[in-house]
# Entry
Amino acid sequence: MSFLGFLSGAMKPIATIIDEVHTSDEERETLRLEFFKLQTGLATQAMEYEKQLLDSQSSIIIAEAKGGSWIQQNWRPITMLTFLVLVVLDSFGWLASPLADEAWTLLQIGLGGYVVGRSVEKTIPSITQAVKK
# Structure
């Protein structure tokens, strides 16, 4: 679940309470307007935080890609290829002992991070341009 989805879900009960308040229609509309301003402000701050987080992740990936060392540029693909070899060996029973549950968890985290990292690396330039407009 995204943070914005969580934020929206958390605000829904407040909106329901405002609708059920026994006041005049004018006061109720004033409350709705103030609540909408609050929601908009929180959503804007959350999106700014997400943008800063993506910018930070992007700068790390770019720094790694521009690094002078071969290992600095290729450690992620090497790590994922190592995981692939271990999975294949485990699947055919060619390992002395099967991979532990922790290894599978590490593989899931690594694969998720690798996919997200590559996605961020590819999409950040277009997102940055769209935000600047």
